[in-house]
Write a structure and sequence with these properties.
By secondary structure, this protein is mainly alpha-helical. 85% of the residues lie in helices and 0% in strands. Helix 1 runs antiparallel to helix 2 and helix 4 packs parallel to helix 6.
């Protein structure tokens, strides 16, 4: 490629990475804010999170358009093509993480008797771990750090353990307090969404590992 073409390609890749980072930052912030809104019953904040998800959706569309443009005009090969394809997939997964945060926010006004639910003290801790996974996997993406990507994958077990504990707690609570079944069901939904955020961060980590090394992580790491 000519120097001009190489420079233009590098600029496109830099822009692609920037869009992914921006998407990820918004998704991570939405996760933390959704849990904050849930615990405090802050419906105004919840509405802001729901509205803010449109920005993440718009960024995903930008990534899609730019990735198609790069493939069509630059005809990338080998490592470069792998990176573009990984960015396309990662953008889709990050958009889903944003959707899960939005879904959590939509439950904020549906929880009654917050002081009666022990899981409301566990959900923020679970959300903290899931949010850290999103943060770390984006750091791994920016640095092409396959080792950090594998660490993110191993952290998913903590999110799963939180989910199992909260699930058992809420089911027991519903059996003992039938009047709280509706609110408890919404909290179960929240826990499930956080568990899925952890799963999606793991999926991104696998793509980051692939983009960095050309191979997926060993099966025992997944």
């Amino acid at each position: 490629m000519t120097d001009h073409t190489v420079k233009a390609f590098d600029e496109d890749i830099t822009r692609l990475r920037g869009l992914i980072s921006e998407m990820g930052g918004l998704a991570e912030a939405a996760t933390h804010a959704a849990l904050d809104a849930l615990v405090r019953g802050d419906e105004e904040l919840a509405d802001q999170i729901v509205a803010g998800d449109k920005k993440i959706d718009a960024l995903e569309m930008e990534v899609d358009k730019l990735a198609v443009r790069i493939i069509a005009l630059r005809a990338p090969l080998a490592d470069d093509l792998r990176e573009v394809i990984a960015a396309l997939k990662i953008a889709g997964v990050v958009e889903r993480i944003g959707d899960y945060s939005k879904n959590i926010a939509k439950r904020v006004g549906k929880i009654e008797g917050r002081d009666r639910f022990e899981p409301l003290t566990l959900l923020p801790a679970m959300g903290e771990v899931a949010g850290e996974m999103v943060h770390d996997v984006l750091t791994a993406y920016a640095a092409r750090d396959a080792d950090l990507a594998r660490e993110v994958i191993s952290t998913d077990a903590k999110v799963d353990a939180f989910y199992n504990s909260i699930f058992r707690n809420l089911v027991s609570h519903m059996v003992e307090n039938p009047a709280t079944i509706s609110s408890a069901a919404h909290l179960l939904f929240v826990a499930r969404n956080l568990e899925r955020i952890g799963d999606h961060a793991t999926n991104v980590a696998e793509m980051v590992h692939y983009a960095a090394t050309g191979t997926y992580p060993p099966e025992e790491d997944r």
